[in-house]
Design a protein that fits this description.
The protein is of the alpha/beta class. The protein contains ten helices and eleven strands.
């Protein structure tokens, strides 16, 4: 089985037709400029000395090398060797807040990095459960469908940031909805959602979605990051505080009241992360998950995974070198 670890980078393939258009217009512009500054005979001599085939070949090699560079960014993974594994567990979706407020530094180094560290700690403590990963801000996206491949989740988790979701803001209701869509309700496994956020919510749909989850017996556990006093959100490059419409510095504060209400509705657990002892909240979440009844999970698991991005990177560089060495002149 082959899959792309960073499938979002396939978007860059749209650059290739754009570059083809650019190359075409550049050649036309080059010819036009050459005619302006040179005599007709000189233009003829220069053009006749060039091989159209070699010129096109050089351009094609450039485009193919860009294609392989993009594929290397996607990091194709080859899984070989399989075994059937039966274990007892539940289905869990971790919904991680990636809004700008999570870049507040009241939790060192940031709320988001502390939250990611917390998820990493949780994954190392869980062994038998199936887990999915959702990133949310003003909208929510499933980054990893429910799986038993914890290594894949850890790799994806390390790359998640505020750019993982285009629409900013915080919509916890959308996070719950997207998490619910990740579950397979045809199986008999108990299900739980873990929402990791500072609790700021701008859409007011969270309670409605929590009630829908409760109707399907899905428990929601919430873990808040942030101090009661809150803090500023700095822009990465300038280190200037983000400002509201009145040009006042934005102070972001966590909202434990909302998160506690969501957990209560679904008979889940609400925990507060601690800046001094960051694992306190995660440990409470783990204990709550351990109390949920486990059912048999039969899964096909890969025994070996190989990252192949280096091969595609090597092909790209070889093509670049060939293109640089290749002359576009005709043979004498």
């Amino acid at each position: 089985m082959i899959y792309l670890e960073n499938i979002e980078y396939l978007f860059f393939l749209l650059l290739i037709p754009f570059l083809i258009i650019c190359f075409t217009f550049y050649r036309l512009w080059q010819k036009k400029q050459l005619k302006k500054i040179s005599s007709q005979n000189l233009v003829y001599l220069l053009e006749s000395n060039k091989s159209i085939f070699k010129t096109n070949l050089k351009s094609t090699l450039k485009l193919i090398s860009i294609f392989f560079l993009i594929i290397s960014l996607c990091n194709p993974i080859i899984e070989s060797g399989w075994k059937q594994v039966t274990r007892k567990g539940i289905e869990i979706v971790v919904a991680l807040d990636v809004s700008h407020s999570m870049m507040c530094e009241d939790f060192a180094p940031t709320r988001m990095q502390s939250a990611k560290n917390g998820v990493t700690t949780l994954l190392k403590k869980l062994n038998n459960d199936k887990i999915g990963l959702v990133a949310f801000a003003g909208e929510a996206h499933t980054k990893i469908p429910i799986t038993t491949d914890y290594k894949l989740i850890l790799r994806k988790l390390s790359k998640i940031d505020t750019g993982s979701v285009i629409t900013q803001g915080t919509d916890i209701g959308e996070a719950i909805s997207q998490s619910m869509n990740s579950f397979d309700f045809d199986n008999q496994l108990n299900k739980s959602i873990i929402i990791i956020t500072d609790g700021e919510d701008w859409e007011n749909k969270a309670i409605i979605e929590a009630r829908k989850a409760s109707e399907k017996n899905v428990s929601i556990h919430t873990l808040s990051y942030g101090t009661d006093s809150g803090g500023l959100i700095f822009k990465n490059k300038t280190r200037k505080p983000r400002e509201d419409k009145e040009n006042n510095p934005i102070i972001t504060k966590k909202n434990d009241i909302l998160l506690s209400e969501i957990s209560t509705i679904t008979e889940g657990t609400h925990c507060k992360a601690d800046a001094v002892n960051p694992n306190i909240g995660i440990n409470k979440i783990q204990k709550a998950l351990n109390k949920i009844e486990k059912n048999n999970i039969t899964d096909i698991q890969a025994t070996e995974s190989t990252s192949t991005f280096t091969y595609f990177l090597a092909i790209a560089f070889c093509l670049i070198i060939i293109e640089m060495i290749l002359s576009d002149k005709k043979k004498v």
